Amino acid sequence: MAFGNSSEQDMMSEINVTPLVDVMLVLLVVFIITAPLLSPQSLKINLPKTTTVASDKKPQPVRLVIDAHGNIAINEAHVSDEGLAEMLRNRVAADTAFQLQIEADKAVPYGRVAELMAIAQRAGVAKLSFITLAGH
Question: In this structure, is residue 1 part of a structural domain?
Fold first, then answer.
């Protein structure tokens, strides 16, 4: 018998390789599954050569400022909620890459910010970002 009782002083000279084989088989399966994903799946085509044209027009984001009392201003001009909706609809219709940045005072209730976000969404604004002060 390979396993002796504790009184025998013989050391076991065989190494159990079953766990090693199990690990190697798992690694082989992982390699077989991932190897096709690593090779590029593309077609080789010759594209026509053209010169690139740099766009001079960079869209300037519009800044919506909400003060502590919930009043709103667009680029330093005070507007009402209805005026904001109309202005946003006009800007989105004129520029598909229109971006709105919201800067809200920390005392403004979240409900007011959510109302203005809903107005922007109904007006068709797709790009919306928030401005915060870093380090405060």
Answer: no
Q: Read off the CATH number of the domain in which 75 is found.
A: 3.30.420.270
pLDDT digits (tens, 9 = 90+) for 96-113: 788 888 888 888 888 888
Whether the model clears a pTM of 0.90, i.e. scores above it, the answer is no
Q: Where are the alpha helices (DSSP H) in the chain?
A: 18-38, 81-94, 110-123
Domain that holds residue 66: 62-130
Identify the three-state secondary structure at position 130: strand
CB atoms within 10 A of CB 127: 13
59: DSSP letter: P
7-29 confidence digits (pLDDT tens)? 556 666 788 888 899 999 999 99
